[in-house]
Amino acid sequence: MSHYELPQLKRIVADLLEEARQQGADQAEAGVHAQHGLDLTVRLGETETIEHTNDHGLGISVYFGQRKGSANTTDLRPEAIRETVAAACAIARHTEEDPAAGLANPDLMAKEIPDLDLNHPWDIDPQQAAEIARECEDAARAFDPRIDNSEGASVHTQSGLFVYGNTHGFVGGYPTTRHSLSCAVLASEDGDMQRDYWYSSSRVPGQLETPRSVGEEAARRTVARLGSRKLATTECPVIFKADVATSLLRALFSAIRGAALYRKASFLLDQLGEPIFPDWVNVNEEPLLPRGLASAPFDNEGVATRANQIIDGGVLRTYLLDSYSGRKLGMESTGHAGSVRNVRIDNTGESLEQLMDRIEQGLIVTELMGQGSNTVTGDYSRGAAGFWVENGEIAYPVSEITIAGNLRDMFGGLLAVGGDNQIPGSIDTGSWLIERMTVAGS
After folding, report:
1. Of the residues 52, 126, 196, 272, which has the maximum number of CB atoms within 10 A of its CB?
2. CA–CA separation, 423 vs 222, rounded Å?
């Protein structure tokens, strides 16, 4: 167990800020975290790794006018704090002035910190974790005789505390937990070997999927890939299965982040208020969602988070800005220092099977490889695997293909979002049916 508690970390942050003032800083901000956890993996029925984590650290940024210096340490003793503040101040005194530097607007600070029910510790020891992982892996290995090897099943649990404060008088913090169970197995048939996985993640241990269901889903996904073929190069409709469709929303968020926009490195530059998707598409953010995996009452600068309509009726309604990028763009922070939190895209109600019914010939993508999304141009090219669809039915699995298009065309050509949105994570989406993409094969 970590020996730090929330009041202690708040005192450390207050001490950091006071030390910064004493060393001459005009403004300062600091964040401190402490976390502990357990990671355990079972492979082929035997406990393979047990890792206990217990770490902490702090970071401080100081401002002398509009000159900024930052420093970090994992040593929370008072003398180490003084040295860290001194290092940040020394850096600030030797940097160039930056007109956009400084704390977030004090009017935007979180006035109240609601309890979002994010803290649900899991009282579990390594023996219990091993039993859960073993049950998960056993279910996967017993699912089908073609499952002949395993990368293991893993249990992860983590409890943490985070406190942020600045010289506007804001000091806030909260405890969180996150737990997960995962499994990856391999299957072979007629010289073809395939691998796939599944997982479950939650703030609350009792809300994880059962070990058996995680293991069986990992096995089901793996066996379904056996007998994969290559495709001839073609253009066709493409379904991004729900768990890979999340990557398309992440590509959207990368393009509307302040840093990409003020550097003019985004294909969505100057698109605020413009249609990006068809008019039925809505994308909403809910950072105050109780028990949400990405929930937070304030961002990394103390700015209060709030519900946002990112896409409304297909139109881009907000950028994702922290205070620095906001100033660079002549705008205000939108509370997105850190990340976007708990995003949901409305679905059109169809099941995956109903989406398939709309395809005479096309592709379902179940796995993506590589980093082939260009935020500057919107060009998109990723290695992929999945299933070929003919007349609304899966014909056979496919692998070693590349899918390509442009994100602007892909967003504009979104025909439907399925209701199959029961996937783990902080992005809530069903499968996406995109009108047309290039599929490159043999």
Report:
1. 196
2. 17
Q: What count of other Cβ atoms lies within 10 Å of the Cβ of residue 287?
A: 25
DSSP E strands, 289-330: 308-312, 315-316
Is the entire prediction scored with pTM above 0.70? Answer: yes
Alpha-carbon span 342 to 346, nearest angstrom? 13
Read off the pLDDT band of 2 (50, 70, 90).
very low
> Could you give phi then psi for residue 125, rounded to 5 degrees?
-105, 170
Q: How far apart are CA 56 and CA 125, in angstroms?
A: 22
Domains contained in the chain, CATH given? 6-224 (3.30.2290.10), 228-442 (no CATH)
* β-sheet with 308-312: strand ranges across: 315-316, 308-312, 283-285, 343-345, 427-428
Contact 133, 42 (CB under 8 A): yes
The pLDDT tens digits of the residues spanning 97-133 come to 999 999 999 999 999 999 999 999 999 999 999 999 9
